[in-house]
Amino acid sequence: MRGFVAEWLPKRRERGLDWKADDGRLNRHVLPHIGDLPIAEVRARHMVDMFHKLRTDPNLNLAPRSIYNIYSVVSAVFRDAKLADLIEQSPCVLDERHLGPLIDKDPEWRSTAVFTHEEAETIISDARIPPDRQMAYAIELLAGVRPGEGSALRWRHYDPTVRPLGKLLVAKSYSTRVGEKTTKTDAVKHVPVHPTLAAMLAEWKLGGWAEMMGRAPGPDDLIVPLPPDAAERRTKRKGEPFRTTYYSGKCWREDGLPALGWRHRRHATFITLAIDDSADPDVLETRVTHTRKSRNAFDGYNRGLQWERTCAEVLKLRIARGGRSSAAEQPIAAGSGGGFAAFRCSPRK
Asked: Which domains does the chain have, with CATH numbers?
């Protein structure tokens, strides 16, 4: 089986899949158990024994979700082996009886893993968070985009003239493994720009971006590029200054959270906060955060009542910079497509 895995992982890498995580799970948890067996001789009983050991080994202490992630990789290996005509049937026929329930290791963690409205407002306005990170966090919090999608956004993707709210075209994502690519679901998303985000984008484009980069931004420039000093320290990646997930995560863990004195939490809580403000979760999920690849040529335009309804739900999110207020209470200037408030980004420490 080791031989097939050695050929399988490079193919995963070529396809832009998460081959590093696959490599780690296979080499740490799977190959030590069944790696010496010919792949055609692996049976369901081997799977049952292996996952029983993984679940009960006190030295591993694997979380239930980790067990399912390992099983997912193993299933993919045997699926591709069957497609390659190396096996007649996959041995991956296990269910919850063998894998255990799919629950959080700490059942209390998830309920405290998101931000309150006040905390969300803090990370996009507090002087202890540098302006470029405020902007990056605001795009995730107020537009509901994934970190990789936010990293790939360019100024030409933002149209502030669309009504009733400006629009972000989310068609690309950035991955450290393959660079710029399509979004996770291959969908092209048309995201309404919340008034608070529109105000921040306007101010960032007029001043903060140029202060950081030393020049005015152009249409093809990234909205929130890697700061020049961080880009100069890169040793493996050259070219455009995309923000990697590693860089953003390290900044959040080592700088942002300690500066604010907060426990660890994720910062992409758009839907949770919007639902708290009475927004329709189905509209937000299907048209903003988890849009599927379009099967209808007219869907991509997001015009008329569909667009207006989506904007109306986004407007229900009450996130203001520096304090609680309704989105409707924030100043909106003509031509801004959603608002330009008279404020400046906090100075960099």
From this structure: 2-99 (1.10.150.130), 113-329 (1.10.443.10)
Instruction: State phi, psi for 316 to the nearest 5 degrees.
Output: -70, -20
Give the CB-side neighbour count of residue 253, counting CA atoms within 13 A: 6
> What tokens appear for 222 in the block?
């990234």
Residue with tokens 């540098």: 130
Q: Which of 252, 247, 248 is nearest to 234 (CA)?
A: 247
The one-letter code for the residue type at 153 is: L
As a whole-number percent, the residues of the chain with pLDDT over 70 amount to 82
CA dist list (Å): 219 to 146, 199, 238, 295: 21, 18, 21, 29
DSSP lists the bridge partners of residue 92 as none
Judge if the upstream peptide bond of residue 164 is cis by omega within 30 degrees of 0. yes
pTM, rounded to two decimals: 0.69
Task: Write the pLDDT tens digit of every residue in 81-140.
Answer: 999 999 999 999 999 999 998 876 666 555 556 788 999 999 999 999 999 999 999 999
Rounded to whole angstroms, how far apart are CA atoms 213 and 301?
Answer: 33
